[in-house]
Amino acid sequence: MKKSGKKENKGSGKEKSRLDAESSGAEPSSSSEESSGAADRSPGEEPDVSEAEITAKAACREENEKLKDQLSRLAADFDNFRKRSARQMEENRKTVLEKVLLDFLEVSDNFERALKSARSTEDMPSVINGLEQLSRQFDSALEKHGLEKIECEKAIEFDPHKHEAVQHVETSEIPDNTIFQVYKSGYALDSKIIRPAMVAVARNSGEKGDERREDE
């Protein structure tokens, strides 16, 4: 009797397990179908997104390479332009310098001839005349290249923009604040003062003192 009871219990247990499996079997199948359907849909969508991203990245890389290439070419062109400009400026400087030196070589030739003549003659007036001609020729060469001598003579009014006072002289010979003596000539290049004339300036303080004493 005991053995039969155990068999029945075992049989009933197996039956119960089978029923449970059948009742629960429908649900897993539906969920598996949904998961398989999602799996079927996702592989179709993901390649589109990843392909677009890859295409965009490739376009960015291509654009970046183009910009780098343009930048390199611009840098090379600018460097070549800078070198050409430097060479051109140097050539222009040499050309201008050559013209200036050729003009002054003429003055130098005449100066040598004047020295030879001065050594072999006792006619001082002719020597002085030759030196004056050399001075005029020298000034003419300077003016040809835009360099002009600043007007600076005795008794003209002192101009601080053109003259540099290196000394004040007490005198009543000329008006106050006028040029008494020129030590160095001044020059202007294309109206720009490159060296002011160095002069002594007259001061009439004695006359002012006399006037003050007369008023008293």
Write the layout of secondary structure elements.
Blueprint: H1 2-120, H2 124-144, E1 147-149, E2 163-170, E3 179-184, E4 187-189, E5 192-195, E6 197-203, H3 205-215
Parallel strand pairs: 2-6
Antiparallel strand pairs: 1-4, 3-6, 4-5
Helix pairs in contact: 1-2
Short description:
This protein has 216 residues and is α+β, with helices and mostly antiparallel strands.
Count of separate DSSP helical elements: 3
Mean pLDDT: 78
Evaluate the radius of gyration.
54 Å
H/E element sequence: HHEEEEEEH
Shape type:
elongated
CA(first)-CA(last) distance: 167 Å
Question: Can you describe this structure?
Answer:
The chain is α+β, with helices and mostly antiparallel strands and 216 residues long. The protein is elongated, with a radius of gyration of 54 Å. Strands 1-4-5 form a three-stranded antiparallel sheet. The protein has a three-stranded mixed sheet with strand order 2-6-3, with no helix packed on it. 70% of the residues lie in helices and 14% in strands. Helix 1 runs antiparallel to helix 2 (124-144). Residues 1-10, 24-39, 41-47 and 208-216 have low confidence and may be disordered. The longest helix has 119 residues, at 2-120. The N and C termini lie far apart (167 Å). Among the domains are: 77-145; 148-216, Nucleotide Exchange Factor Grpe, Chain A, domain 2. A hairpin with a 2-residue loop joins strand 4 (187-189) and strand 5 (192-195). It has three helices and six strands, in the order ααββββββα.
Comma- or semicolon-separated keywords:
single chain; 216 residues; alpha+beta; Nucleotide Exchange Factor Grpe, Chain A, domain 2; 70% helix; disordered N terminus
